[in-house]
Amino acid sequence: MPPSPPTPPGTNPLWGGYKTPTGHGRTGARLNLVIALVCALAIAVIWLGTAHRIALEREQAQAAAMKSNANLAVAFEQQIFRTLKAAEQVAAFVRDQYLLHGTTIDLRRWVQQQLIRDALFTIVNVADASGNIVASSSDTLPTVSYADRAFFQLQQQNTTDALYVSAPVFGRVSGTWQIPMSLRIARADGSFAGVVVLSVNPQHFTDFYRQSDLGPQGLLELAGLDSVVRSRTVGNRNSFGIDAAKLPWFQRYPVAHEGAFVDSGEAIDHVARTISYRSVAGYPLMVTVGTPQATDMALVEQRRTAYLGVTGVASVALLAIAGLLMLMLARQRAATEALHASEALFRATFSQAAMGITHIAPDGCIVGANDKFCHMLGYRLDELRALNVLELCDTEHQAKAQQFLTERLHNRAPALSPEIEKPYRRKDGTVLWVCEALSVVTDAQGRPEYLVAVTQDITVRKNLEERLSHAALHDGLTHLPNRVMFLEQLSQLLVQARQHQQRVAVLFVDLDGFKGVNDSRGHAAGDQLLWQAARRLETCIRAGDTVARLGGDEFGIALASLAHTSDCEALAHRVIAALAQPFDIDGTPAHISASVGAALFPAHGEEPGALLAQADTAMYAAKKAGKNRFSWALQSGA
Length: 638
What we know:
The protein is an alpha+beta fold. Residues 1-20 have low confidence and may be disordered.
């Protein structure tokens, strides 16, 4: 029998050639090495993933903070813009009245009558060309001079009609620190005639802080491009008159007129903040909003601590990887819920805003709207989303609204006014006048993503303006056009007559015997007679003619497109006959007559004033001839 082969080292024949525990140990060592390598790789992957997650959430949180601050900066800039526009309107109104009436204007009475209603302005003064105050809304006329004030000296040299927002000064009238806002008064020849000055407490400019909840270390600032801070609020502290030249956002402004970045805070109080700044449209001013980095990143820091703890546990005990994944999923759900909570807070703020807010696509389609806007228009949100914003406008205003929308999308320069006044048509058909500010939100490539429209109801103001405009051109008693409107319409008739070689006649009507009725039966009876006489005159004229009350008991009639002079005479005799009929004054008849004078274009004159004067002279000729009759002007070719 051949000898048995030698047994290989490390084997046991009883195990049928299988490896002994020594070989199994080596396999286990290799497996341990593999497990160690896998664990090391898993730990490396976990730590790398954790670091990436922390960096990503920090980046997202920073982006969200910058976007939120940018929206706040837009809202703050729009509030400042509206405030300055309101101040400019008040100053322009005071200036116009001063140019018309001089130092007899009563600013205090206007404040009491709420013609000047904005409580923002501490005091309103008018200074003459020498700087002396000649009119004031204060109880007594201050005996001070503005001649040495920087804003007064600037307006002396200024040739533009613009509101100047000065650096804060200690008020000589109010005895407190104020920001003077001045508007130049110019004579008809353009020479300097003085200034209108509105004084504002610097803190009023940053009252927006209380509405925005920026936190105890939040920053809100209004600064001029002259490097002087008009007003700054940090927490509950307000300051002004500070040099802004060393502020990082002020140094960035010449390169970019709006932007956002993280500031270390070394220039103010060493508090790091997320800063957003932008210019105020149409004014040499800029607004800045800042929120503390500690507040913006608080949730991120909390998550960072949690991620590191979870990763440490996972590194020590890979057997708990399933639990770790579940924990991370729970953390992810917590992050999602926090994001949803943040979105819910935004939606609540968006829905409960005091003004209407809409998100509009570049093509004009309404993407979203808050409850206030829906209530203002009377539509449900789903109904608005089915509409284009231009469809809400009246037809005659759609072109202007489309042009404004296009300009905001393609020209976002600070000089472009971000507001438009336009009428919307409510669902019930009524008209809603609004002042709407549009801001463009862009994507990372700078392309317009959507527009944010902030809408304010100004229907009451527009109705008041319409009533004031009507009152300025119409007689308050008879509701006929007054002398100003009569001459304006006569001028238009003369332009058409020159173009078409037509004739125009002017009648001057004076009521004979009106003074006797007015003196004997009282002014109330006289007013009734004038009102009835106006109605009779309206029945005498043709379509296209104009009748107006020129003053007292005098009326004017402009006859357009006169074919024959006899047509003028016939109408004059109709007027005489109509006014000769008895008037019923409180059940008692009153009798008057009319003397009518007429002048013809171009025979008696070519200008409205000359024709009216000729007709007036002819009317007096009719009176001298016995009243109750008609007379042509002396040069008449009729």
